[in-house]
From TrEMBL, chain B:
GO CC, any one term: ATP-binding cassette (ABC) transporter complex
Protein's organism: Candidatus Polarisedimenticola svalbardensis
Pfam families: ABC-3 (PF00950), Fe_dep_repr_C (PF02742)
Keywords, sorted A to Z: Cell membrane, Membrane, Transmembrane, Transmembrane helix, Transport
Protein name, per record: Metal ABC transporter permease
SUPFAM superfamilies noted in UniProt: ABC transporter involved in vitamin B12 uptake, BtuC (SSF81345), Iron-dependent repressor protein, dimerization domain (SSF47979)
Keyword Cell membrane attached: yes
Amino acid sequence: MNDTFVILLVGCMVASSCALVGTFLVLRKMALLGDAISHSVLPGIAIGFLLTQSRSSLVMVAGAGALGVLTVFLVERLQRTGRLYADASIGVVFPALFAVGVILISRYASMIDLDLDCVLYGEIAYTPWDLVVVAGKTVGPRAVWVTGLTLLLNLVVVGLFFKELKLVSFDPGLCEALGFRPVRLHYLLMALVSVTVVAAFESVGAILVVAMLVVPPSVAYLLVDRLILMLISAVAAGCIAVFAGYGLARMVDGSIAGGMAVAAGGLFILAFLFSPRYGLIATWIRGRRATGSSAGPNSVL
Amino acid sequence: MEWTFTVRIVLAGSALLGLTGGVLGCFALLRRQSLLSDALAHAALPGVCLAFLITGSKSPEVLLAGAMVAGVLGAFAILAVIRNSRIKEDSAIGIILSVFFGAGIVLLTWIQKLPAGNQSGLDRFLFGQAATMGTDDIRLLSVVAVLVLCAVVLFFKEFKLVSFDQGFGVSLGLPVKLLEFGLTALLVLVVVIGLQMVGVVLMVATLVTPAAAARQWTDRLGLMLLLSGGIGAVSGSVGALASATLPRVPTGPAIVLVSSVILVFSLMLAPRRGMVWAMLQDRQVERRIRRENLLKDLYLAGERGTGFTSWVTLPILMGYRGLTGAGLLRSARRLVKNSHLERSGDQLRLTVEGIREAAKVVRKHRLWESYLSRRLELPPDHLHRDAEMMEHALSDEVVDDLDRRLGYPECDPHGKPIPREQS
């Protein structure tokens, strides 16, 4: 397979997976829980890696998934004690877990081939060379398999639980009254976020996963109202960001993952200004028409 | 561990950063800006890179200025997105954080490929490398620390008002917007200073974790600032020493782990707010309820015919609530000590004082039933369960008032007499 093709394919699959779960995070005002998870899975990855000495192991994914769920659990327990604000609970939990991860990795760095830089801001450029060999035959780059399977998993789960996820995102009370379990759905979603984050790790890195989780769904949120349309446009925005970001990175010979985040940011600015329904300009024009006044858009400050 | 120059520098730097971060973190925590400070830390990165690209200098002052500008820009961008679109705060923070950081990474990788960029040392802003600090870093850090602490002391009252009651501040004619901007600018300053020591990700913890720990011990802002600064300084020093002593333990994560341990300790043990404290209190209440129930059961047994001071055997008492003999005896022991009960073998009986105490509980129960029945017109079979709880919760004053308002009824809705103190 052509290298550029592999990079773009992996990027698009990561972006699509992230957009699917990210949409629900954004709708449920939990974007920063996604941010927290993307950091706190680090010790899970390190432990999984230390145990099995391999990067492709299920143990690593399981470890990271467990840490993700643990993060959500800890944040919620802290909030429920009433002793910390919601945002502070997030702000104390993920750095603590992240610190454990960094110490684990740097203490055993000589024993394992796990590069902190790579884990944190990813190196999608190397993905085409890391091949999977099954029964003596190469069956393609590992990242393609990993991100492909994750995308499939996300599609299946979101497809199966679409109605429930929709309900819990817009009306958790009704969801509970109808006999669904909002708490279980919540943890299902969070586990899915954790798995997605882990799969995306090597390609875009821990910190830039957040860009993929939050920015494309926010772009979609500015464009459309219906959930299904929002999912589709979030996936589309993510993929556009991947292509544009790749071009940008090539142009300045910089980090591809960083370029994708910047491109996503560019899309957001476009949507923020020009969205026909919720954009700054459209709202301004509507406001002017409605009041007949010549007042400018809301002051930025 | 050798007491080298580097160790001393790192120790001084970590303690100073912990102190300043802890103090300012209190305001971030109280103003619900914990995660904003996380975003500021990420947003500063492209500023550092641009400052290097424009000036070609890597002196801390220049890089700091760049980071400041980017941080303040990031803060304004978040505000602008929240105010002018339907995007919620959490997403806005996530967007600015990740996009700015992405831009920083692109610039950083670009710089590293420049001929002069290899030794730029900018990547220490990512993870923080306290060990690379020099005396000029410490000098800058001291200046910032003095500046921040002076500002907090000078504007203590104003900052307090802005953190707790902005509306009141406006009504007093305070420049609330300006004060808020000042606080945010100080926050950016500390974040930026801290970046090269603890790195982008862990910066938020040097601010919020000490403040969250200090919050558990006090309700007063002044004391909280002192405590938080102290916790920050201690975490910084212990973390720096741990990192100097143990092989391959980076300073930033070590500092964060120490402050996290202090936080867990505070959440558990702080007087009144601590979870252990709360658990003990719950147990005390539970025990009091069990004792009151035992007194009441003995009273009711007496009321059913045999007289209030007659002996009742344990098996009979156990039958009332399905309790174990051991549990009953545990409750009884304290009551015997207070001479509310007398015990002989497996028999118990009320003393005169015990009868008075038991009557109080029964009175509360029956008055509450009367109240529910008369005022809320609940049917007779809906009264008992509520009264079972209220009999342990109502204070004597409230019950006296209830009694008066109900016109001192003789009997409860089930026709049982309501005991009153004979005086």
